[in-house]
Amino acid sequence: MFTLLLLSALAGVALSGRSPNADFIERVFEVPGARYSTDILIDAKLDVPGLVARYGYPIEIHEVTTADGYILTMHRIPHGKERNNEPDANKPVVFIMHGLVSSSADFLVLGPGNALGYYLAEEGYDVWLGNARGNFYSRRHLNLNPDNFLNQAFWRFSWDQIGNYDLPAFVDYILAKTVQPKLHYIGHSQGGTAFLVLNSLRPEYNEKFISFQGMAPASFFTHNNKAVFRSLAPLETVLETTAFAMGMGEVFPNMDFVEWFVRNYCLEASVFEPMCGGLSITGSSDYVNETMQPVFFGHAPAGSSIRQISHFGQNIRFDTFRRFNHNRLTNILQYGSATPPDYNLSRITVPAYIYYATMDSLVYPKDVLKLCGKLPNLVLCHRIPSETFGHLDFIWGNGVRTLLYKKILDQMRESEDKYL
Ligand SMILES: *[C@@H]1O[C@H](CO)[C@@H](O)[C@H](O)[C@H]1NC(C)=O
Ligand SMILES: *[C@@H]1O[C@H](CO)[C@@H](O)[C@H](O)[C@H]1NC(C)=O
């Protein structure tokens, strides 16, 4: 995802024109029966509520405040438009969480005929989409200011905090609001990582989930031999320290940091060369509809903290899935040991359905199999039947609905029969 960030930033994608304020919603007229984007430029510029409203789906905006003061936004599509088009308190609930530097838009940009959010709403689900702290929709805090370059406290979080604070706030809120005992969780990439964090650190949350549907959940990087990844690993501390020192704990869409990064690494250090150019945005994907790219890059990247990236860097460097490594003293104060503890995966007892892709260049198939081998209640560890499916095809791939979403839906229904 890091390559993607740089490339899209270099491609001149700017998010600054949009405002997270709900008042912004621009109600462009509804398009009956549309299955793809009917106007690429409009869809690229709208925010999530505007996008959903444009295709005639119901959309609600919900705010939660985490125990550590972050104010986060969720988007809800409570029912479908063509089928299951009435509110119903008995609908099964699904909560979907995006990956690194992304947002709830990931599950909508493919349009009503294809995107996971609309698909599950039409199939009878009450669909909730989260936005992790620090992204475009969740860039607020009770006391901390994300725009204060002299005090970067807002940005000192990784996906450990997303799992440990954001997810429980979302889940508790949704269950209270819907008066349901349990919900399904779907996570893409870091969205899966955060789920593993939550249920290993707070195992009491296991009983709140019907199933865990993990789309390329990121955990181990043992088998990933990509030069980009290997080059990032030893630099994780340098990268983070430098970024914080420069008042740039926010990775994207902070264009200054991108400029700095490009200047320092694309021209000087050859290890970063592969990240700086000559790559196609989606790697070798056969699936991405090129016409749709302005829509995808109108919504991603949506921002995150540098520490999310350095935490992944640590996992690569130490070849383990464990909590964030501070300095020795802070580790002792926070964890009671000089080195951070591993996330204890044997505490994750939710029925787990894991999906992975042959051509995923971030979350390698072998690394997913390693994770599958450690989940005590694994039901399915499924390779998507394609030789060319990649990491972003989970959210942007043409045909992902037939190749994958249908399968996820079947598994969700099966798990409701068994576990609800
Ligand atoms: C690609 O996207 C465009 C615009 O949304 C759509 O009109 C077209 O049908 C899509 N192509 C394929 C092959 O699905
Ligand atoms: C991990 O969790 C399991 C299940 O709760 C427990 O039996 C085991 O002792 C834990 N391991 C560590 C290293 O804490």
Describe the structure.
The chain is an alpha/beta fold. The protein has one domain: Alpha/Beta hydrolase fold, catalytic domain (Rossmann fold, 3-Layer(aba) Sandwich). Helices cover 37% and strands 13% of the residues. It is built from 16 helices and eleven strands. The chain has helices at residues 2-10, 40-45, 48-54, 116-122, 159-178, 190-201, 227-232, 236-245, 255-266, 273-276, 293-299, 306-317, 328-335, 365-374, 393-396, 400-419, and strands spanning 60-65, 70-77, 93-97, 126-129, 140-141, 183-188, 209-215, 250-252, 304-305, 352-356, 378-383. Strands 1, 2, 3, 4, 5, 6, 7, 10 and 11 form a nine-stranded mixed beta sheet that branches. β1 and β2 (70-77) form a beta hairpin. α5 crosses α6 (190-201) and α8 (236-245) packs antiparallel against α12. It is globular and about 55 Å long. The chain starts with a helix and ends with a helix. The chain binds 2-acetamido-2-deoxy-beta-D-glucopyranose (2 copies). One 2-acetamido-2-deoxy-beta-D-glucopyranose binds at residues 344, 346-347.
Major sheet size, sense and barrel closure: 9 strands, mixed
Using only C-alpha atoms, the radius of gyration works out to: 20 Å
Output the structural class.
alpha/beta
CATH architecture annotation: 3-Layer(aba) Sandwich
Instruction: Give the fraction of residues assigned to helices.
Output: 25-40%
Bound molecules: 2-acetamido-2-deoxy-beta-D-glucopyranose
Question: Can you write the helix and strand succession as a string?
Answer: HHHEEEHEEHEHEHHEHHHEHHEHEHH
Number of discrete domains: 1
Q: What do we call the CATH homologous superfamily?
A: Alpha/Beta hydrolase fold, catalytic domain
Number of strands: 11
CATH class (first level) name: Alpha Beta
